[in-house]
Amino acid sequence: MKVIPYGRQSIEQDDIDAVVKTLKADFLTQGPKVEEFEDAFAKYIGVKYAVAVSNATAGLHIAVLALDLKEGERVITTPITFAASANCVRYAGGEVWFADIDSDSYVLSLESTKKLIESKPKGFFKGIIPVDFAGLPADLEAFKILADKHDLWIIEDACHAPGGYFTDSKGNKQLCGNGNYADIGIFSFHPVKHIACGEGGMVTTNSETLYKKLSSLRTHGITKDNMAENHGGWYYEMQELGYNYRLTDIQSALGITQLAKNSAGVVRRNEIANAYKEAFKGKIKFQNLAKGSVNAHHLFVIEVEDRKGLYDFLKINKIFAQIHYIPVHKLPYYQEIGYESASLINSEKYYSKCISLPMYPTLTSEEQEFVIEKVLTYVNV
Questions:
Q1: Which residues, 6 or more positions from 273, have their beta carbon under 8 angstroms from its beta carbon?
Q2: 131 CB contacts (<8 Å, ≥6 apart)?
């Protein structure tokens, strides 16, 4: 029986050809393919600037630094996310505060965030990091209104959601990471994500100031922009403490061909999601989709009472589901630094029941029918 994973990359001949061509070219890193990828990605998302980085975690790190997060300052995010969404705050010496999720959409709850902010004096918090969980866009227009009222910045963790969008109050389609309501957007190019580069990420913004800061932090804080006439071509200046968070030309070449397929990939992901929804409607709970939104569907998550039993049953049938995620405040590191008393009821209830089913564009209808059959057989509905 063929193994069916929860997610996987799709590498085709044009992807291979693009990488081979770059391997035979003059630059393997710091060459023209990186800028080409950045330009293509910015155009696709509809944002002014895109900065390619070694991975999305690196992108989150330089994003909080570019927004001048200092030691001891506080940032709000969701506990239902990969740890990096919170860890980036800790990297800068900041404090993470968790607001609860919405029990139907699974994204950061606006009401929970508002309640948390208003429980403290103005200036207590520095920013908010909403996550487009599973590919479902957060309502960033609403978060922006809240953030502006309290002088907070927003980083949109859009790692699950390239090609997803919500519709704002003016009827405009707002693609995830386009910078119209968030200061910075973050994307991931891990193999199970929409755009697979092996590893990699992209940071997006409409601010020229932030773009320059991000570009500097990505490359050791080094620039050649201030070269004087009496210096040779070797001259450079390290103006701040930066990092080696660069993406290679090899990965960028792959990213360019992968990006070109993403629109079709999102369509296929939604076809798969709709088939799941039709099969499970009225029987099994799944993520709610707000009107006017398109879920990019990195994941398709359901809730069941006997999650461990279903997980094991699917594994026996060579269906490798996954759990997304253990709440960040329940991880040992966060427990040890003072989060053991955090009470996030919706997040913890969600975690006790959630399981991610196979979701990737090359999943066949026959494979999906097999998955659906096994799920329904186990839950006996």
A1: 295, 297, 300, 359
A2: 77, 78, 80, 81, 85, 107, 108, 138, 157, 159, 160
Express each pLDDT in 44-62 by its tens digit: 999 999 999 999 999 999 9
Is the four-CA dihedral 79, 82, 86, 90 of positive or negative sign?
A: positive
How far is Cα of residue 170 from the mean position of the Cα atoms in its chain? 25
At 22, list the tokens: 């770059």
CB neighbourhood size of 208 (10 A): 10
My answer on whether omega of the bond before 165 falls inside 30° of 0, hence cis, is no
Place of tokens 């009472």: 305
What span, in angstroms and rounded, lies between the C-alpha atoms of 357 and 370?
Answer: 12
Handedness of CA 187, 190, 196, 198 (dihedral sign): positive
Are 259 and 195 contacting, i.e. CB atoms less than 8 angstroms apart? Answer: yes
Alpha carbon separation from 115 to 98, 100, 118, 176, 366 (Å, rounded): 12, 10, 5, 25, 46
What are the phi and psi torsion angles at 366 (to 5°)? -65, -45
Which pTM value belongs to this model?
Answer: 0.97
Query: Which tokens hold the place of 132?
Result: 């487009």
